[in-house]
Amino acid sequence: RPKYKFAFNSCHLLNVSKCELTESKDSFTITLYNPLAHAGHQYVRVPITGDHYIVRDYRNVEVPAQIVPIPEAVQRLSYRFSNATAELVFLANELPPLGYKSYFVTRSIDTLDDFVHEMSNQPARGGPAAVEPTEPMGVPAQWQSQEVTIGNKYLNVSFDSSGFLSSITVDGVTNRLRQSFVYYEGALGNNEEFRNRSSGAYIFRPNGTEKTVTETVQLKVIRGGTVQEVHQVFNEWISQVVRVYADESHVEFEWMVGPIPVADGVGKEIVSRFYTAIQSNGVFWTDSNGRDMLKRVRNHRDTWKLDLLEKISGNYYPVTARIALEDENLRLAVLNDRAQGGSSLEDGSLELMVHRRLLHDDAFGVEEPLDEKAFGKGLIARGKHWVLFGAKNAEASPTIEARERFLQNHVLLPNWLFFSDASDFKYEDWQKQYTNIYSALSLSLPLNVHLLTFEPWQDNSLLVRFEHLLEADEDPLYSKPVRFNVQDVFRQFSIEEIREMTLGANQLKSESSRLKWKPDPDYFVFDDVNKVVPNVTQRNLTASGATVHSTYRRVTRDAVEETRNVADDGYEIVLNPMQIRTFIFQLEYKP
């Protein structure tokens, strides 16, 4: 029986690099709970105040770690009460599916100051000898004024002498990729008629084209074996960190915007914009609630001839997970961590709106301007974008589209971090007395299957939903129907019976009878192949000058027939592309 008990604490201010426990304790544990049904990994970042730390897993294996300075703009936040000036970064690997794994972190004595700190706080505690456990920050990073490059074995990103991202190299091929921040001035009007409507909480209505933020960007570079970073400062209220982790094939952008200045009496709407040489021909794609990717065509609507007066806002669409554009050879995708407006206003470019501050009501009901404040100042927003860029190759698996799907699932359902004070016991006690790794599953689900729901139901049963993550034709392997045995996956549970339910779990699927509607010939009809069925309405629209095509990804007939020829078998479940299925697992009763 464990000699010590300790609490699991969450650090809710990690987005401003603040965690009182990791900053003040010389020994602590980090437990990562993985909510996905696949083994995973995460680069953990925790704020610390020391210079050297040892990170060990449950097998007494030291994990390589790096100490990275916290961006100066974050350290200067007036409401950030923290002594941490750096973060400890390490890779937590092989995280068990639907389970947890813990790491033991110890501040090591390496200097006289560390020794004095150790003796004053922990006079009776011993510990392992320090053997350069973490990569030190070394010489403080200086502001750069020349071209710089960071990267790993998968990709490199370069910045020009003005401090802007300028190119990306993937598989030895370099392509243009520029990123910057611009802003739109919000339209101001009396709201008495549409042309005088103000931009506000419910309407995006810019007053003219975008304005640049700066012509030069201050830039610092941090390099190490775990992560390489570029810290950018665009002006006094916009900054960003561009980072490439050692074993990741994407680029992470962590932006911070605000307080947006409005002393000039002008509201502003800030966007992050990416520029490439992709010949997108006015076409881009946005997600539909994180699932299907919908085709968008600039200055176009499918069912009528468009006369667009609002050229900017009229081409904006909701982006809840991902926006992308492509041509025959290249593809760019940007994933976001929250719902944002996005568009492609020029061929080869994508943009996402990251922050807004407006001074006039738009007369849509709230009766106040979108001018939110905290601590007496305009709000500061901090978030992340993840960029995947590469060649389109439909034959090689995983394709870039499949990698986007897997990354999207990972960033939208990240691991849950818990922190515990380990000051009262040694690593050896923690290792022997506690279960420091656990999984509720016997096997990982296939990579293209997501465990959407797993919760107690009634009468000793579980409600379970499975989701196929990919669309048909996105990947030669992962877009196929997938079969798996639920008894093999959930071996820790004695499943007596599985019953398929309707999606909402309110009725047995075998007992459901869907109403059959007689289609109205005056409207379009879409069949199960997402292909428009010609009718008189289509002919009339075409004759009047409108073009008609499906906004959905077109699926080949062979792909559809392939999914129809696969069926369940006992405890084996089959999922077709983009399918969600709901089940009740009846468990064996054990009194």
UniProtKB/TrEMBL annotation:
| Species this protein is from | Anopheles aquasalis
Q: Glycosyl hydrolases family 38 C-terminal domain spans which residues? A: 448-583
Q: Cite the Pfam families for this sequence.
A: Glyco_hydro38C2 (PF17677), Glyco_hydro_38C (PF07748), Laman-like_dom (PF21260)
Write down any Gene Ontology CC term: lysosome
Keyword line: Hydrolase
* Domain (Glycosyl hydrolase family 38 C-terminal): residue spans on this chain: 150-363
- Domain Lysosomal alpha-mannosidase-like central: residue ranges: 63-105
| Protein's UniProt name | Putative glycosyl hydrolase family 38
UniProt xrefs under SUPFAM superfamilies: Galactose mutarotase-like
A Gene Ontology molecular-function term? Answer: carbohydrate binding
A Gene Ontology annotation in the biological process aspect, one of them, is: mannose metabolic process
